[in-house]
Q: What sequence folds into this?
């Protein structure tokens, strides 16, 4: 993975580079939405200090040095000259304040996941290997109350106390994906959007679905969780492609 072009006074440089690569690829995959949506990563032991993208900068242009270092317990964060987006502060700040077990948090309005979140029943039915990956490992939020300012962020974060639940399907909104590392979180977000697309397209056929049993779905989910190295290799390959293209993400 790239560790080049170290900047002065830029702590957590490797983590910055990894996050920047994920922003670039999220834009390339069209999972982003204009200059909205945010990723964050806790960088201290209790999870309250975190890196996050700056306010309203397009994912395709974000560099490692652009990322803000914020403290979820600092009430003056929104008074900074480079203050983050208020909804990003409300949602990500609340999660990092309440849920130190969720180190990396990625929030997107990717198309198929948002379609799923817009259904009256947002259950992701296990109809293939990818959808089974998330069996019993997500929560559905049915209480959407508007933009994710602090009260909405606190309400969402309160539902994320179970470390096993790594995705929140945010009803009428989008998805929130959690992980222990940047690579794990990005990989999970990628496969959740793929899973949502498979499920939505299957529903569009109007034909009866081939649904896996709970036992098989749980077996698949457990096997994927213990599958060695995939998340790290996925991200390292994407970073290698960016490096070969001469991208400036790691600056």
A:
């Amino acid at each position: 993975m790239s560790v080049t072009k170290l900047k002065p006074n830029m702590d957590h440089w490797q983590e910055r580079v990894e996050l920047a690569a994920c922003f670039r690829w999220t834009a390339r995959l069209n999972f982003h939405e204009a200059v909205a949506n945010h990723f964050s990563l806790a960088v201290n032991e209790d999870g309250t200090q975190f890196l996050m993208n700056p306010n309203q900068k397009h994912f395709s242009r974000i560099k490692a040095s652009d990322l803000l270092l914020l403290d979820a317990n600092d009430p003056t964060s929104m008074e900074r000259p480079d203050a983050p987006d208020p909804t990003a502060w409300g949602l990500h700040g609340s999660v990092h304040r309440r849920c130190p077990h969720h180190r990396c948090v990625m929030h997107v309005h990717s198309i198929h996941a948002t379609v799923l979140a817009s259904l009256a029943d947002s259950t992701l039915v296990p109809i293939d290997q990818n959808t089974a990956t998330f069996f019993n490992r997500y929560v559905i939020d049915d209480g959407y109350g508007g933009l994710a300012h602090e009260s909405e962020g606190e309400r969402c974060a309160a539902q994320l106390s179970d470390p096993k639940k790594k995705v929140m399907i945010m009803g009428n909104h989008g998805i929130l994906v959690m992980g222990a590392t940047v690579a794990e979180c990005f990989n999970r977000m990628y496969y959740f959007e793929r899973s949502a697309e498979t499920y939505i397209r299957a529903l569009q056929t109007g034909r009866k679905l081939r649904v896996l049993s709970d036992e098989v779905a749980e077996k698949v989910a457990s096997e994927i969780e213990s599958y060695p190295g995939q998340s790290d290799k996925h991200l390292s390959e994407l970073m290698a492609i960016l490096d070969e293209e001469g991208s400036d993400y790691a600056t």
